[in-house]
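User: Design a sequence. Structure:
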């Protein structure tokens, strides 16, 4: 389906999600991403119930596999599942309250992720409406398909690269733990594998902290915000070279971009809240248990069990810290672009406004571009100032938890 825009146009409208066509096709089969493009331009999407069922089935299957694997490992060292759990708790010098905290926080993460899973059922409608609005707003902004493709590479490869590095490091630690377990049949060593499986794998897939599905979801979210930022930057550039621009055209394009930003804010608000909450929660968990790495150097010999346990947690926490920070940076770029458009718009207004009606329209636009573009449910602004406040929140939680831990 092609969208035709009236009037002369050198650049045909391009869907901002066109670069995701391949990854969405793979994601629907491999990860259960429940939407599929139904046109070559990748601008209209439909719901895929079979893919959604595959997502639910994959999560349930992963839980079963983890449970069976834990039972097999426990039986290999002559332990029941309950004793296996207790060995892990005792060998890591964790109290019963620490063990309870692990279980409670995992259930909380799973609860947030269940909400996430239910929300993705409507992602095809969000994608379709966003593409239609973005293609309309891009009229005259001289955006080509290659611009969106370059944006996609920069946004996604950054997150994917970090994820691969962290996941590879954690997998290496797990492999060392697994080798130690079966070579030595040491019950203390088994705790490393237990906690690696419990905290890394269960949270990784069941809590959707890092999985192929999460990668597709993040690619979509970053592409939406990144393409919106690209449209704003192009509009600001057009205002800078505004010799042949009419005030009515600028007002129309500005209103379309404001409506597009408002829709992105509404559509992504709940997802951003869940994502930020999940990242803060897991960073706190990871640092709290990652501090056990200090226990590895308290004796005459290095305690490799505590070392591996702490290292895997710190790596995992680092990944989620940067995952949240990338999201904050995407919001900050939108804030910067809003500010740039507002400055250029003010200069254009001073030179080109002709009548009272246009003055009122420009005044309204100026006010709208003075707002924060992404403000999830009016809870916080998605910008670096909020990111610093979240860092302070994490530090506060850790201070309180560590006081109880070492009391």
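Assistant: Done.
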């Amino acid at each position: 389906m092609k969208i035709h825009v009236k009037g002369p146009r050198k650049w045909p409208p391009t869907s901002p999600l066109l670069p995701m066509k391949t990854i969405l096709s793979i994601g629907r089969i491999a990860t259960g991403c429940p939407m599929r493009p139904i046109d070559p331009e990748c601008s209209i999407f439909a719901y895929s119930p079979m893919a959604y069922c595959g997502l639910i089935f994959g999560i349930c299957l992963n839980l079963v596999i983890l449970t069976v694997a834990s039972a097999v490992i426990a039986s290999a060292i002559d332990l029941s599942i309950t004793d296996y759990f207790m060995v892990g708790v005792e060998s890591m010098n964790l109290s019963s309250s620490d063990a309870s905290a692990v279980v409670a926080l995992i259930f909380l993460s799973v609860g947030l992720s269940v909400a996430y899973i239910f929300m993705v059922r409507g992602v095809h409608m969000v994608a379709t409406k966003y593409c239609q609005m973005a293609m309309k707003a891009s009229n005259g902004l001289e955006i080509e398909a290659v611009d969106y493709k370059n944006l996609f590479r920069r946004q996604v490869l950054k997150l994917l690269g970090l994820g691969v590095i962290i996941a590879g490091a954690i997998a290496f630690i797990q492999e060392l733990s697994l080798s130690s377990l079966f070579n030595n049949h040491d019950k203390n060593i088994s705790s490393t594998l237990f906690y690696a499986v419990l905290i890394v794998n269960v949270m990784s897939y069941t809590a959707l902290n890092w999985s192929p599905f999460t990668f597709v979801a993040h690619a979509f979210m970053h592409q939406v915000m990144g393409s919106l930022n690209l449209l704003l930057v192009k509009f600001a550039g057009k205002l800078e070279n505004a010799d042949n621009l009419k005030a009515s055209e600028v007002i129309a394009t500005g209103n379309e971009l404001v409506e597009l930003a408002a829709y992105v804010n509404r559509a992504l608000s709940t997802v951003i809240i869940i994502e930020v909450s999940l990242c803060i929660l897991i960073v706190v968990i990871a640092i709290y248990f990652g501090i056990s790495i200090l226990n590895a150097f308290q004796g005459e010999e290095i305690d490799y069990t505590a070392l591996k346990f702490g290292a895997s947690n710190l790596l995992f926490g680092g990944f989620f810290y940067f995952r949240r920070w990338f999201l904050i940076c995407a919001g900050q770029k939108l804030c910067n672009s809003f500010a740039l458009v507002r400055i250029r718009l003010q200069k254009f207004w001073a030179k080109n406004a002709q009548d009272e009606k246009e003055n009122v329209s420009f005044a309204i636009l100026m006010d709208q571009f003075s707002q924060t573009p992404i403000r999830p449910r009016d809870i916080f602004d998605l910008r670096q100032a909020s990111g610093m406040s979240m860092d302070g929140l994490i530090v506060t939680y850790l201070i309180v938890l560590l006081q109880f831990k070492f009391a």
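Residues 1-9, 199-210 have pLDDT under 50 and may be disordered. The radius of gyration is 25 Å.
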